Amino acid sequence: MAWRGMSVALRPGRRALKWCACALAAVLLVPPAATLVVLRAYAAGSPGAGTHTRGRDALWMGHAWVDGRRDEDDLARLAQRVAGTGIRDLYVHAGPLEFDGTLRPARHRRARWLLQGVERELPGVRVQAWLGQLVSYGGAAPGRLPLDDPRARSAVVDSSRRMLRVGFDGVHLNLEPLRSGSRSYLRLLERLAPAVHRRGGVLSVATHQIDPVPGAHAAAGAVSADGRTKWWSHSYFAEVATRVDQVAVMSYDTWTPWESLYRGYVAQQTELALEHAPATTDVLMGLPFYHTDTPGREPDAETVPAAVRGVRLGLDRQDASRERFGVALYVDFAATPGDWRVYRSDWCTTRSARGIRRRPRTP
66-75 long-range CB contacts below 8 Å, 24 or more apart? Predict the structure, then answer.
């Protein structure tokens, strides 16, 4: 996929925000007071009236949909939830991949039932096979996929082809943790994209968050035991985005303690994603449709209203007219009626969802 840079004029207010963010890069650890000021600045303001769904949203869905635990009643409820929203893609967990990159057929034995049901109940909605695994670098490690091994990468490509033969409309890849700058991951995408496209499918990936200040990924990696980090550099995010059809930024588990700071963080992440992804790639921002309380996540801060507001603010400031944009809801089995209600009222209000025609299934 050819890369085309995006040239966007900065509004006066956004220039100030960029200046504040860059100023923070002068230190290794961002001072809490400065973080508070910057994220509150990103959280301020009112988004424009046109910052609503483009009909390109997605929903992450659990493994129960393809292993036999869901039935027709569940499918009817899903259709009711999705109808009339902006959801175009369903990322259905069909793995996990084995540690050698292969995929056991028994893990998705009811996939054809789901595909036929979605085609019947939700025409125009695509179903992508969500494939994921923990990864290791520099050789095999217990319980992880060795990303540097060409044989493992080839097996991932073969597993993806199998999913398309089953009838999925695309492949959604979620490998973690991915180091910023990993060439092995880029090599995998360079092989995977043409394999998916040859069968008329779409390739999407879940991405790490983007450096809130330049060098954040390097600073975090330097102090972690295994070099892992939640962030990618701006340039690496761009390299990944040029190789796929769709990126879904995992903009949750952010360590932000208050709702206003989370709103500002999502606004900033949205701006960065739009700034560095090519215009030919769909950019989706993750919404937290789950409520777990972990050291890296405060559920009272990471709320759906805050995330949607942040997405709209970032979209309005960076590229309000962009059509290849949406949100991705994580995850169906943890979502509450309130999550769905806010998604509909705050994001799907003023523009009707626009579905697309499903590709003909290859025998």
Answer: 66/92, 66/93, 66/94, 66/107, 66/108, 66/109, 66/110, 66/111, 66/114, 67/107, 67/108, 67/109, 67/110, 68/109, 68/110, 70/110, 70/114, 72/117, 75/114, 75/117, 75/118, 75/121
Q: Is the pLDDT of residue 95 over 50?
A: yes
Q: Which residues of 157-195 are buried (b: 16+ CB within 10 A; e: fewer)?
A: bebbbbbbebbbbbbbbbbebbbbebebbeebbeebbeb
In this predicted structure, the answer to whether residue 28 has a pLDDT above a threshold of 50 is: no
Model confidence pLDDT, tens digit, residues 235-291:
999 999 999 999 999 999 999 999 999 999 999 999 999 999 999 999 999 999 999
Which residues, at least 6 apart from 144, have a Cβ–Cβ distance to it below 8 Å?
99, 133, 134, 135, 136
Cβ neighbours for 89, distance < 8 A, ≥ 6 positions apart: 56, 57, 58, 59, 125, 126, 127, 128, 170, 172, 202, 204, 246
3-class secondary-structure state, position 57: strand
- Looking at the chain, the whole-number percentage of residues with pLDDT higher than 90 is 79
Q: Tell me which of 319 and 19 has the higher pLDDT.
A: 319
